[in-house]
Structures are given as C-alpha cells and as structure tokens.
C-alpha cells in the first residue's frame, strides 16, 4: 500500500480542523480485483499475528471505532477481522447505558469488557460516546446525577478528556495497546447511504428515523469529534481520521493500521525449555511405539 498513515494520524498537542481532513483520498487499490487481493493478504497476516499474540500472552490489543451513522464501522470490523480466530477476538457494541451502568462512572461499563492478554478487543462505539453524543445532547448528562460543581462551565468535558487519557495510559503501561479509528464520513456521502438503505429493501432494517434526527446535529457532532480527537490522541493511543467515503479504501487503511500495531509488538511464540523439549521427545518415542494410538 502506497499510503502514509502519518497523514491521517491525529498529532498530539496540535490544533485539529476536521474540515481540512479528507473524507476521500486516492484509492490505495487500482481495481476491485486488487482490492480483494490486498484485503485477503492483510487478513492472512492478521490471522497469523493474532495466533502469535494469543500464544505470546503478554499483550492485549484494543481497537476502538467511532463514527457518524452509516460510516461503515460494522462492515470494516466484519471484513478486516474476518480471518481472526473468534477465541482470540472479542467485539462489543455499546448502546445507551442501562440504569445500573448509569449508577457508576462513565468508564465502568467498558472497563469490564477490556481484552485479556493475548486477545484483540474491539469496541464498536465506546466510552468516547460520553464526550460525543452526551456533549451534543446535554440533557443526557443531566440524567447522570453528576454533582453540580463538576458540570459547571464545561468542566465536565475537560475532566472526562483527562480521565480517558489517564485510563488509556494506564492500560498501555500494563500491556494493552490501543488504536482508535474515527471513520471520517462526509455529510453528502451519509445522505447517499441513507437513500441506499431506503431504496434497497434488504437494507431497510439498517435505517432508523433516529438516524435522520441525529443528522440535524451534524455540525455539533463535528465540533465534538474535533475537540475529542484533539484532546485524546496521544503517542501511546493515537487517533486515526480514516477517510470513509470509499468503504473499500477505509477497510484497507484500517487493516494496515491494525497490522502495523501488531507488528510493532515483537511478538513471538514461547520458547521451549531444554527440559520440556526432552520430555516431548520421550513422549514422541512412546507414540511411535504404539503407532500413534
């Protein structure tokens, strides 16, 4: 892939203007056939590295996906992770918090779903909803019973950004590598995809009137995403603003991001001690004598 991921990595400490971040770029594939070939190659590499990650059992990987409706989160997860052993991968989709979850801090429910060492965890939406949808719809915050002195003058958002950064730094220091993908979709492309969901009866189930209502808040969402990405992209847990108007391109870019993350971990299969090797050779002799029975 002739594409530099640094071009879409949100740089820590730098002011971000999402309007200047592309939602569509030159395709990294030249044809549909090459797209399938590249993706298959990426999936095969991911499968191999995931097996080593599982055997190595020192690191965990957490992939976080955030986006506007119809940006392609589900399909990206489905295609990119299609070759990964289900035993080594866990996918969680976080909807509106339950009454029990609302009785805890905003990180509580997702913390319980963090991947174990040796596994890949995927959050389809995440604790970031608490500085995105909740910021766009402040009435949600009012129902969370947060003390008044912590919500004055917008203090709650700065506190949550800091909590998120500290949380992710803590996870990094304990072996969890975090990669965050914001699928950057244009408003016009969302409109086209909504129309497609209406016109194609097999996709009708995907469309909700609530999606149309949220579209009215597009500008506010862009402001919330802009501030969120700017405040929480770090060297240890970077955000990538993945151009999402071309789904195929987005999938290839996401798979490359995941591959780069796994390749950076110096993964290896556990070494066999001389004693263990000797034991295995003795067992092999026994199996040979019994013709493998």
Provide key terms for this protein.
293 residues, alpha/beta, Rossmann fold, 5-stranded parallel β-sheet, 5 strands, 47% helix, 11% strand
Order of the strands making up the biggest sheet: 2-3-1-4-5
Tally of alpha and pi helices:
12
**CATH architectural label:** 3-Layer(aba) Sandwich
Query: What is the CATH first-level class name?
Result: Alpha Beta
Rg measurement, Å: 22 Å
Helix content bin: 40-55%
- What spatial form do the alpha-carbon principal axes imply? globular
Average pLDDT, all residues: 93
List low-pLDDT spans. none
**Strand composition percent:** 5-15%
CATH level-four homologous superfamily name: P-loop containing nucleotide triphosphate hydrolases
Provide the CATH topology: Rossmann fold
Computed structural class = alpha/beta
How many angstroms does the end-to-end distance come to? 49 Å
How many strand units? 5
Report the sheet with the most strands, covering strand number, pairing sense and barrel closure: 5 strands, parallel
Summarize the structure.
It contains 12 helices and 5 strands. It has 293 residues and is α/β, with parallel strands linked by helices.
Description:
This protein is of the alpha/beta class and 293 residues long. It has one domain: P-loop containing nucleotide triphosphate hydrolases (Rossmann fold). Helix content is 47%, strand content 11%. Strands 2-3-1-4-5 form a 5-stranded parallel sheet, sandwiched between helices.
């Amino acid at each position: 892939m002739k594409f530099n991921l640094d071009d879409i990595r949100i740089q820590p400490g730098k002011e971000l203007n999402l309007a200047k971040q592309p939602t569509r770029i030159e395709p990294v594939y030249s044809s549909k056939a090459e797209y399938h070939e590249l993706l298959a190659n990426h999936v095969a590499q991911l499968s191999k590295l995931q097996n080593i990650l599982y055997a190595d059992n020192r690191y965990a990987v957490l992939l976080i996906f955030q986006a506007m409706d119809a940006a392609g989160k589900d399909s990206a997860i489905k295609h990119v992770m299609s070759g990964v052993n289900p035993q080594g991968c866990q996918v969680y989709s976080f909807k509106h918090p339950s009454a029990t979850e609302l009785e805890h801090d905003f990180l509580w429910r997702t913390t319980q779903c963090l991947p174990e060492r040796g596994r890949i965890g995927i959050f389809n939406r995440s604790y970031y909803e608490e500085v995105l949808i909740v910021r766009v719809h402040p009435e949600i915050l009012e129902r969370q019973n947060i003390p008044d002195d912590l919500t004055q003058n917008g203090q709650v958002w700065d506190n949550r950004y800091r909590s998120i950064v500290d949380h992710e730094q803590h996870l990094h220091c304990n072996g969890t590598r975090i990669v965050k993908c914001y699928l950057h979709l244009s408003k016009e492309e969302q409109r086209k995809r909504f129309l497609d969901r209406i016109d194609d009866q097999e996709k009708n189930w995907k469309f909700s009137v609530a999606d149309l209502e949220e579209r009215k808040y597009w500008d506010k969402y862009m402001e919330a995403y802009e501030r969120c990405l700017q405040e929480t992209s770090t060297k240890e847990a970077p955000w990538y603003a993945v151009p999402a108007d071309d789904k195929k391109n987005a999938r290839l870019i996401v798979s490359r991001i995941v591959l780069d993350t796994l390749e950076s971990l110096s993964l290896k299969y556990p070494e066999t001690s001389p004693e263990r090797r000797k034991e295995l050779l003795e067992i092999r002799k026994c199996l040979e004598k019994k013709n493998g029975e």
